[in-house]
Amino acid sequence: xxxxxxxxxxxxxxxxxxxxxxxxxxxxxxxxxxxxxxxxxxxxxxxxxxxxxxxxxxxxx
Length: 61
Hints:
Layout: H1 6-43
């Protein structure tokens, strides 16, 4: 019977942990960038007026 390769298992756990930490870090950076972008939009002009600009069919009155 073959012996378990504990070094391989540990390396796989470490890689998974590092991957998870990187994903968390990227998510935090994305959330921070989105929060910074939202704060700037609140102080700027109202961009919601252009929301219906692409509508080519006016409503029937």
